[in-house]
Amino acid sequence: MVPHAGVVDGEQTSGGGKSGRLRAAIFGINDGLVSNVALIMGFAGADADRSVILLAGISGLLAGAFSMGAGEYISMKVQREVLERMIHLEAHELHGDPEAERAELAEIYRRKGLSEGLSEQVATELMRDPAVALDTHAREELGIDPKEGLGSPWGASWSSFLMFCIGAVIPLLPFVLISGSAATAASAALTSIALLVVGALTARLTGRPTWLSALRQFGIGMGAALVTFLVGRALGANTTG
User: Fold this and answer.
1) Quick one: how far is CA 20 from the chain centroid?
2) Which domain holds residue 63?
3) What is the arithmetic mean of pLDDT over 199-218?
């Protein structure tokens, strides 16, 4: 991606597109919304009893939330261990052969467009302090920003678990209060509104038009719900028939 003309609204937020809390929250809620509304609508399409739909919805909520939480923990834990090992090995390389590492850093800056003399000067200055040298090599060579931290596996796990629960409970709420076609219609309406809101929030991350992101999110989520509803209706008809 090269510089090009255009207008932006203000300065970009550091880290917003890589590991922002907003992104994690949106993805967690979206997963809960889409997966549970599809499950619930499948049972609703089959004209299942309210108690069965509630059982299915609660089971889907818990299964999905625990799966998301456990998966996020393992993923973040492994990623953290890999990054820690890379930094650890880089520290050993800096101690074992500092001249080779200095030359490697100078070469990186030459590839970035600095002159040979300036690249050598910058690399030499940065290598004077071991902590600065390690930080610089982690950023420039490994693509890791130690200042931002490597992420908390437990924090990511709980965040995914809770946000999935919030999303998954939305299509389930109407069936707690009412039953039958009224509950199905209310669930679809409530989920539709939530999907539109989630899509609009997604636009803050992608920079796409709000209406486009909202409609896309709505189409994907309710499209999945419609498919499972029709499948449930067909299976229910065959069973009763």
Assistant:
1) 9
2) 21-233
3) 88
